[in-house]
Design a protein that fits this description.
Elements (H helix, E strand, L loop, with lengths): L39 E2 L7 E8 L5 E7 L12 E7 L9 E2 L14 E4 L5 E9 L4 E9 L9 E5 L14 E5 L5 E8 L12 E9 L2 E2 L3 E2 L26 E8 L5 E7 L11 E5 L3 E6 L7 E9 L5 E9 L2 E9 L5 E6 L6 E8 L2 E8 L8 E8 L9 E2 L1 E2 L2 E2 L1 E9 L5 E7 L5 E6 L4 E3 L14 E7 L5 E9 L2 E8 L26 E5 L4 E2 L4 E4 L7 E5 L5 E9 L1 E8 L5 E6 L2 E7 L5 E7 L6 E9 L6 E9 L2
Parallel strand pairs: 18-44
Antiparallel strand pairs: 1-35, 2-3, 3-4, 4-5, 6-7, 7-8, 8-9, 10-11, 11-12, 12-13, 12-14, 15-16, 16-17, 17-18, 19-20, 20-21, 21-22, 23-24, 24-25, 25-26, 25-29, 27-28, 29-30, 30-31, 31-32, 33-34, 34-35, 36-46, 37-40, 38-39, 39-46, 40-45, 41-44, 41-46, 42-43, 42-45
């Protein structure tokens, strides 16, 4: 076993006794008065690293995490382990500490996921093969706010009756709540088949840890409506369902402790394309994006970041016939703004997403890509309560910003800061908007990210108002994690030209009107049921196909159905006038008061009807949520 020696490095970042962040006057250069301290190496030399990062904590200390591509104690395929190192507020680094199990099956897939909150609570999750049980498992290890790493814990085991098969390439996501609790979201097959259903498609599950206790994995993804299987019934809707896949989980906690889970859902074969899309679960479940009857679209979830003041930003890609569109949403459960960031012809790839105090930022890399992965960087901003701007090319000194990476943060004042590795000089830069284009922070040789293996891994704002960057660069036959800190934040710079006229803010949750089931007209076949778990204490229940709930003639541009979900529940179609707005599946983990919100549409006037589309399947409706156009 290699012996680690604790050393002090040149990085300076403490909670007290340091100059306050610079106060900037309006100037063409947002970096006036800002400089970098001498950077320092964090990980040991001569070890191949796959990824890493450095996080500033509220008490002035730092926490570093990195995954090794070669086991430092034995020959092996990698990345094989995650290591941690802590620096106290007085500037001394402790010895590196192994926090994950050793794995030799990670050559192909990036399996480690981690997250850290401001108190130092952290989580690392990975996929692991259990040779004794000849099965794959999901493992996680947590760090308490006191700085102690717990023993690794198995959070999910395949074929247990709760979770089905787990693959090595299965996607997972992690997040730490403000109170130190942890969520791990992951892909897995269902544990068993319902009659007529197939368990071949993945779904998204979630397990939550508090201290040493973890919840039983819960399926959270929305399932695809039915397609006919081998069935002798004359009406295919009377046959059992077969599910489509849900995957690509993303998870985050905002400052209020609200958990946000996003995922991609794809329709099963021969089913309406509009039932696929991007889904987000906060206190309700919302479909943020959809395919169309005319053009089936595939989606890829590209990033998520929760706002410390509440809310979330999500970015995704949507494949259409002309290329790949980039979209983003920022806001809450049923409010907020959704906008097109880059058009399909651009074929962008999201590099980073950030949200603070209602400000949101997405950085996109635009091809053609160089052999090292460099791309032109575009940035799109969304002001609090406003609309997304289109992705605009980032320029510096009149030239396009072209490089690798693209880590981004927003200052408390909403100023975007983007770190990347410059393609031509292999030298890291950190940019902020200037009067014309973007301006880089002057390094003065202190923050030299030179070297072909340079990759910016993390960028954070410390509680004392500094930037903290972490990056990998070649060093002594391997890769090394380095860290550097600024002495302040960039100042806001007035735009060179007057800003465009502000767009009216997108209506938030208050713009929705809830219509209780008691205010809806009912056809034959409905039965009223009462329970404290229903909104307003009542709901209506049916299993009859064609049973209808209706609301008087109304002008609206969005509608949702407040329902109870269950694993054998059916589906309903929603109409405004004679126009079918969409289909809603009530299948899912058993729960009441679940809002199934359909995407927005052009304002129209007509009677709102909810029509049961299945036979013999439970439909339980608590009411409607409508937004008047």
């Amino acid at each position: 076993m290699r012996t680690w020696i604790a050393v002090a490095v040149g990085l300076t970042l403490a909670a007290t006794g340091l100059p306050a962040p610079a106060v900037h006057a309006a100037a063409p250069d947002p970096w006036v008065g800002v400089a970098w301290t001498t950077p320092g190496a964090v990980s040991p030399a001569g070890v191949d690293l796959a990824a890493g990062g450095v996080w500033p904590l509220a008490d002035g200390s730092l926490l570093a995490l990195w995954s090794v591509a070669d086991d430092p104690t034995d020959a092996g395929d990698g990345p094989a382990q995650v290591w941690s190192r802590t620096r106290t507020s007085d500037g001394l680094w402790g010895p590196p500490e192994q926090v994950s199990d050793y794995q030799q099956y990670f050559t192909t897939y990036p399996n480690f996921r981690w997250d850290v909150n401001a108190t130092g609570a952290a989580v690392v999750a990975w996929t692991q093969y259990d040779p004794g049980a000849t099965s794959w498992t999901y493992r996680a290890v947590t760090r308490s706010t006191s700085g102690a790493w717990a023993a690794p814990h198995t959070v999910a085991v395949e074929d247990t009756g709760t979770v089905g098969s787990i693959s090595l390439s299965g996607s997972k996501a992690v997040a730490v709540a403000p109170d130190g609790d942890t969520t791990v979201a992951f892909e897995a097959r269902e544990a068993q088949e319902d009659p007529g259903e197939s368990s071949a498609d993945p779904e998204v599950f979630r397990t939550h840890g508090s201290g040493s206790t973890w919840t039983t994995p819960e399926e959270v993804s929305v399932e695809t409506p039915a397609i006919p299987v081998n069935c002798l019934e004359p009406d295919p809707d009377d046959c059992p369902d077969r599910e489509g896949p849900s995957d690509q989980p993303a998870v985050a906690f905002d400052g209020s402790g609200q958990e946000w889970i996003g995922w991609i859902h794809r329709e099963a074969a021969d089913e309406p394309a509009e039932e696929a899309g991007v889904f987000l679960r906060g206190s309700t479940t919302t479909q943020l994006a959809t395919g169309s009857e005319l053009e089936a679209r595939s989606f890829a979830l590209a990033g998520i970041d929760a706002d410390p003041t509440g809310g979330v930003a999500v970015a995704w890609h949507r494949q259409v016939s002309t290329g790949t569109e980039t979209w983003a949403h920022a806001g809450g459960d049923i409010g907020g703004a959704t906008g097109l960031i880059t058009a399909a012809a651009v074929n962008g790839a999201v590099r980073s997403i950030a949200m603070v105090d209602g400000h949101a930022l997405v950085v996109v890399g635009v091809p053609p890509a160089a052999i090292d992965g460099s791309r032109n960087l575009h940035a799109a901003l969304r002001p609090p309560g406003g609309s997304w701007g289109s992705g605009a090319a980032m320029t510096e000194d009149g030239a396009d910003v072209f490089g690798t990476g693209g880590r981004a943060v927003l200052t408390p004042a909403g100023v975007p800061v983007v770190a990347y590795a410059h393609a031509s000089t292999d030298r890291g830069r950190v940019l902020a908007p200037a009067e014309s284009g973007w301006s880089s922070i002057p390094f003065s040789g202190a923050l030299d990210l030179s070297g072909p293996a340079t990759a910016v891994q993390s960028l954070h704002i410390a509680p004392d108002g500094r930037l903290l960057a972490g990056w990998l660069s070649a060093d002594e036959g391997g890769d090394r994690l380095h860290a550097g800190a600024s002495n302040g934040l960039p100042g806001a710079v007035p735009p060179l030209t007057p800003p465009p006229s502000p767009q009216p803010p997108t209506p938030g949750p208050a713009a929705f009107t809830t219509v209780d089931d008691g205010a809806l007209m009912r056809s034959a076949g409905w039965k009223r049921t009462r329970a404290p778990s229903y909104a307003g204490g009542t709901a209506v229940l049916t299993k009859r196909r064609g049973a209808t709930l209706s609301l008087r003639r109304t002008t609206l541009d969005q509608v949702g159905v407040l329902v109870s979900t269950c694993r054998r529940c059916g589906k309903v179609d929603v109409f405004v006038g004679r126009t079918r707005i969409g289909r809603v599946s009530l299948k899912g983990a058993p729960a009441h008061q679940q809002l199934r919100l359909l995407p927005m549409f052009s304002a129209r006037t007509g009677k709102v009807r909810v029509v049961v589309a299945t036979s013999g399947r439970t439909i339980r409706v608590d009411g409607l949520a409508i937004r008047t156009g």
